[in-house]
Amino acid sequence: MIGRDKNRTLWRVLKIDRSEPSELIVLEDSTTYSESECYDLLRRIHEGNKSTGGLKFVTICYGIVGFIKFLGPHYMLLITKRRKIGAICGHTVYSITKSEMIPIPNSTVQSNMTNSKNENRYKKLLCTVDLTRDFFFSYSYHVMHSLQKNLSCNETGQVHYESMFVWNEFLTRGIRNNLKNTLWTVALVYGFFKQVKLSVSGKEFKLALIARRSRHYAGTRYLKRGVNEKGRVANDVETEQIMFEDVPEEQPVQISSVVQNRGSIPLFWSQETSRLNIKPDIILSRKDQNFEATKLHFENLVKRYGSPIIVLNLIKSREKKPRETILRSEFANAIRFINKSLPEENRLKFLHWDLHKHSRKATNVLALLGRFASYALNLTGIFYCQVMPSSSSKGLLNWSCVEEHDGDYSLENPSSENGNVSKLDSEIAKAECDANQNQSIKVPMFQSGVLRTNCIDCLDRTNVAQYAYGLVALGHQLHALGYMESSSIDLDNPLAEDLMRIYETMGDTLALQYGGSAAHNKIFSERRGQWKAATQSQEFFRTLQRYYSNAYMDAEKQDAINVFLGHFQPQQGKPALWELDSDQHCNAGKRGPDLVENARSLIKRSLSDGNLRCENESPVAANVGYSKPLSGKEGGVSNGLSDSNPEISTCESDMSYSRYTPSMPSRKLFKDVEEYRCVESNHICYDEHGDACSSSNFFDMDWPSTSGNSCEEDLCDRSSAGLSSDNLGNDVKVETTTSASDSGSSLKGRSQTGSSDDLAGGFPVRFVQWVMSGEMLFH
Question: How many helices (H) and strands (E) does the chain have?
Fold first, then answer.
């Protein structure tokens, strides 16, 4: 394999040893060649091997995704076509438009018919992971990290591949360990990336919206729920909104970013996939009296983002048949328990707000969410700085705002990889001093803490809330850059509509990845004045699409994810992946412990991966098509969590479970998939006995709505006794029907004003009732 830099001045040679039948041996020629020297070397190799066919051209590639082995030879995954999708201060970000899997055959590897059949099936399974959908990378910008972290830390080497957002960490582990560098590989991030050019008051700027999906505890909707023993949650996605001036590269550029987070409710809970019940019951799988896993999760957030951690919980406050409310009360108990052991200034700030209930009222949900977003943003702040030409053109990552902090992090002693408060203060003081000497340089600002939003699936309702937060943040960013005198953007501003479309696209993309369908966007559709009947029809069919994907497609999709991430490694003499009844295989390949089989034949466990950490140092060099060289340091696995700490999974039988569904024929993994509806909730939190949490860290979202909703609701008693007269009627309606999507439409509710055919397009009433109410089809 021949690699060169962008200017075609430096040429390197990579050799893959095919004589070893089982281990991957990759060697890099230490000589740096010129173009003519390299071609001369190839000519001599070709002539010396003419008797065996000589050299044969295979393909041009733009980076190695990694290597993988099933039961036969190793395979090399390559990027053969790429597309520019954006640039951050001159650092290009690419998506993949074509990839290839190249076998590295060994003459001694002989497969019998069974192994050959299984080998082909594994290959087909891996190919369902569509690298051309929602994966992105950059050679010079660490796209797996936030802008603030990139400018605050000077980490180099393989440590970047250990980020929770690098999905090919396992695939590249072998070559990185062999070469002790990352010259030839690219780090793939999975999620969403979109960059657009917008304008305000005649001034143009660029906006990039990035969503990074965690590879830990990754999977599909019903097979990955809640939290695992290591504190990793399902559907964990970091969203970053970056905006910067649209100026030539040789000029100083102002740049700003804000980060928010979404993730499954950090409790041990699950839902059973059912082909008859479109709305499976929610089950609290185990009682963690001390909420250790929940605490680990929030400690990880503190380590990644600093303090405060603000939790916005959007699930329902009341239901006729308790589903979401089961988690609502337990989540409140967990937060209250954790906060008891924390000093007041470090406590988690927690808010229940029933978005579903408010979306059914004649209230402006986005305006109410915007008021809370302003409150949260005032606590965390945003990141802002000016990047000088030498920094933006020669390497944004060489510029540093904050010194790296190497201390320990915990909820009791919050800090972050972005720098702690004292360091921020010292840096700001230094910047102020510099600014006094040069009035053109503005004082940098830093984000400390994060807003964590969740509903049940963390897709539909969560995306609405994240848009509201992003809009408020955009106002602050534009104000910081001097584009606006005010820091607020009205919902009727054209910028609000532009941003809404970007967040809507992101929501659809993330929903397809995790849930199987585009997101339910009823609130966005209503905001744009879309015809109500069209919205209801769209929500109905997305519910069906999500149901079909969850019931028939997710098992195979989960298997493909497990193979791609290295959670399952095929091994001779061991059961094949599709013969197992659990999706947690304890790293059952040659590097992992022995396989532990689950006796419960209809259950799939929902646990995290067991990646073992392997770090090495690498020299500095540059090759086009290959990631910027990095260097790392030796490290071990700890019980604590961080952005880069993989964990060794356990195989205990008391983990959370979800129902197994049989595999279906191969489909493209990250193609069209969808989630069923999401409906959400309101109010201050209560413990399991219905006692109000008097801590000032708990909030009632109704305070900005001035609706007068009572805070005295008992989460265990589902009666209407605790309701105020102002919201009694609405809550009774919610309890007596179950809606199918964020649209809030319900069969029983509509029966008073119109026929179900208006919503279902002529489907039988029984069928519509099954879709909308989640009842058993043959009940």
Answer: 19, 20
DSSP letter assigned to residue 33: B
Contact 399, 153 (CB under 8 A): no
Of 6-15, 305-314, 437-446, 611-620, the poorest mean pLDDT is in 611-620
Separation CA 143–CA 165 (nearest Å): 9
Helix/strand/coil for 549: helix
Mean pLDDT of 501-517: 89
H helix intervals, 446-553: 460-480, 494-514, 522-527, 532-548
Summarize the confidence of residues 12-35 as an average pLDDT: 91
Taking only the tens place, the pLDDT of each residue in 349-362 is: 999 999 988 887 65
The residue among 250 and 476 whose pLDDT is bigger is 476
pLDDT of 602 > 50? The answer is: no
What is residue 270's three-state secondary structure? Answer: strand
CB atoms within 10 A of CB 205: 22
Q: Helix H segments across 128-269?
A: 147-152, 169-179
Yes or no: say if 689 and 253 are a contact pair by the CB < 8 Å rule. no
Pairing of strands 74-88, 64-69: antiparallel
Most confident of 283-292, 422-431, 699-708, 736-745: 283-292
Q: Rounded to an integer, what distance in angstroms lies between the CA atom of residue 33 and that of residue 10?
A: 6
Cα gap 574→202, rounded to integer Å: 65
Distance of CA 282 to the CA centre of its chain: 23
Please, are residues 459 and 675 in contact by the beta-carbon 8 Å criterion?
A: yes
Q: What is the mean pLDDT of the chain?
A: 74
**CA–CA distance, 180 with 177 (Å, rounded to integer):** 5
Local confidence band at 489 (pLDDT 50, 70, 90 cut-offs): very high
C-alpha dist (Å) from residue 770 to 280, 340, 767? 12, 43, 5
* Distance from C-alpha of 382 to C-alpha of 474, rounded to nearest angstrom: 10
Q: Which of the residue ranges 34-48, 414-428, 570-584 has the most confident prediction, judged by mean pLDDT? A: 34-48
Tell me, what's the pLDDT at 660? 36
Residue 97 in 3-state DSSP?
A: strand
Q: The tokens 């992971």 sit on which residue?
A: 129
Alpha carbons 291 and 186: distance in angstroms, whole number: 38
Q: What is the pLDDT of residue 19?
A: 84
Q: Which two tokens stand for residue 476?
A: 């602050």
Residues facing 450 on adjacent strands: 309
What residues have CB less than 8 Å from 648, skipping those under 6 apart?
587, 610, 611, 612, 637
Residue 460: the pLDDT is 86
Q: How many other C-beta atoms can be found within 10 angstroms of the C-beta atom of residue 770?
A: 23
Closest of 529, 552, 537 to residue 673, by C-alpha: 552
- For 377, residues 6+ apart whose C-beta sits below 8 A from its C-beta are 258, 451, 469, 472, 473, 476
Please say whether the dihedral angle defined by the alpha carbons of residues 419, 302, 235 and 374, taken in this order, is positive or negative. negative
Q: What are phi and psi of 63, to 5 degrees?
A: 145, 150
Which tokens in the block code for residue 318? 């009341």
User: φ, ψ for residue 356 (rounded to 5)?
Assistant: -60, -45
Task: Tell me the C-alpha distance between 335 and 96, whole Å.
Answer: 41
Helix extents (H) in 306-364: 324-340, 355-360
What pTM value is reported for the model?
0.74
Tokens of 184: 């030839």
How many of the other CB atoms lie within 10 Å of CB of 575?
A: 14
Please state, as a whole number, how many other Cβ atoms lie within 10 Å of the Cβ of residue 430: 12
- φ and ψ at residue 207, rounded to 5 degrees: -130, 130
- Each residue's pLDDT tens digit, 256-308: 999 999 999 999 998 877 656 667 788 898 778 899 999 999 999 999 999 99
Looking at residue 346, the DSSP 8-state letter turns out to be G
The pLDDT value recorded for residue 695 is: 41
What's the Cα-to-Cα distance from 369 to each of 169, 268, 284, 449, 666, rounded to whole Å?
37, 28, 29, 19, 41
- Tell me how far apart the alpha carbons of residues 188 and 85 are, in angstroms, rounded to a whole number: 14
